[in-house]
Design brief:
The protein is built from 10 helices and 8 strands. With 217 residues, the chain is α/β, with parallel strands linked by helices. Strand 6, helix 8 and strand 7 form a beta-alpha-beta unit.
């Protein structure tokens, strides 16, 4: 396939942030008096918007409690929790190589705009992305709105577009928007879980992703 536009998920695909997300959910749940969910459950909702994630983790909890949880989670993620986050190996070099080759790059993330803007600034990657779309600007994954918005803004055909992500929500979102998807196994969802959604392939490193994309030029 020809690939002109590559849309990347952020958490779990470009940024190794799962441990921080799990820690912040645990701290926030404790603070508002909710039973701590198992780590596997928290990892499974990474990629959804924060509101969707809280509804999934605590479906029988009052809305007021979930609202308090989201606020406390943001406190921990922005200021109170110091768990380090890093780009996965090869991400910066790989993105710069795709940019050098003339690929149009974008981000579709379950993060809010404030969080993504901070991440782009801290990593120095903002100049590489033509478009970014966040969960507080569109419907949460797996709804295809974020991808559709990116396609409309870039005017690239779905046939020339690839979504790269580490969760089933990314693959489902891509399918709903009519674009191909590539899964990565180093994020939060297991390979078997990802393959059930029928991505083109499931790769084990970001370097493999770059090699795959460059090989389809």
């Amino acid at each position: 396939m020809k690939t002109q536009l590559v849309i990347f998920d952020w958490d779990g695909t470009l940024m190794d942030s799962a441990t921080k997300i799990v820690n912040c959910f645990n701290h926030a749940a404790r603070d508002v008096g909710l039973d701590l969910p198992p780590e596997s459950a928290v990892r499974n909702i990474i990629g959804l918007s924060l509101c969707e994630a809280c509804e999934t983790l605590f479906p029988d909890t009052l809305v007021s409690m979930r609202t308090a949880l989201t606020r406390r989670y943001r406190d921990y993620f922005v200021e109170l929790d110091d768990t380090p986050m890093h780009l996965f190996p090869g991400v910066e070099a790989g993105l710069r190589e795709l940019h050098r080759r003339g690929k149009t790059l974008a981000v579709a993330t379950g993060k809010a705009r404030r969080g993504l803007s901070r991440g782009l600034k801290e990593t120095g990657l903002a100049d590489l992305f033509a478009v970014t779309r966040c969960a507080d600007e569109a419907r949460s994954k797996p709804h295809p709105q974020m991808v559709r918005d990116i396609l409309a803004q870039t005017t690239v055909s779905p046939n020339d577009t690839l979504m790269v992500g580490d969760t089933v929500y990314d693959i489902q979102m891509a399918r709903g928007a009519g674009v191909k998807s590539l899964a990565v196994s180093y994020g939060v969802h297991a390979r078997g879980q990802l393959l059930e959604e029928s991505p083109i392939s499931c790769l084990d490193s970001f370097e493999d992703v770059i090699a795959w994309i460059c090989g389809t030029t």
